[in-house]
Amino acid sequence: MVYHPFFDIKSSFNIDNINIDSLKNINLKKLIDSKDIIKKINMKNTLIYDPKKFTKGLIDHLKLNFNLAYGRLTFSKNFNISKNFFKCKGDTNLIEEYPIINFNCSINSNDKKNLLRQFSMKYKNKNEPFNLNVRGNLNILNNKINFKNVQLDKNYEASTEDLKYFKNKFETILLEKNFLKAFSLVKIKEFIFEIS
Hints:
The chain is α+β, with helices and mostly antiparallel strands and 196 residues long. Helix content is 21%, strand content 40%.
């Protein structure tokens, strides 16, 4: 770790227990308002989450890489839930007045029934693939999202009207109070139910 004139940090964390509720208490606005400090932090971090064998939780494995240099944050996140694979990567400039996160995310599953069951939702057909790709951007301070492209398998690409519908549902359900509240499993389930 180097302190002067910048903070250079490289770290790797392996954890077996995580409390998602603690994320909801972070004051994002206050954190982002510290632009002078953010400019001076350069870091490369890896976080790997493998829960204990008998831990009851939704996520089986998580790997998160996040790098910060001169205010620009890049990230990639991979996690799986019962053989359903989620990937997300993106970037933002935290020095901007209203930071916008550009994201490109996907969900890949060989069994849509198994995927929806993880969110306590019923589906009849077994072994039906589910491959969703979503690109867009998110204003984390104003709780606004824009979807640029949504594709499901090879036979569906969202129309302009569909993208507006997804935007409306995402903002009213997942971004109802603030960006960090979107990590609620109940909210995610409600959103999936509304758009499926």
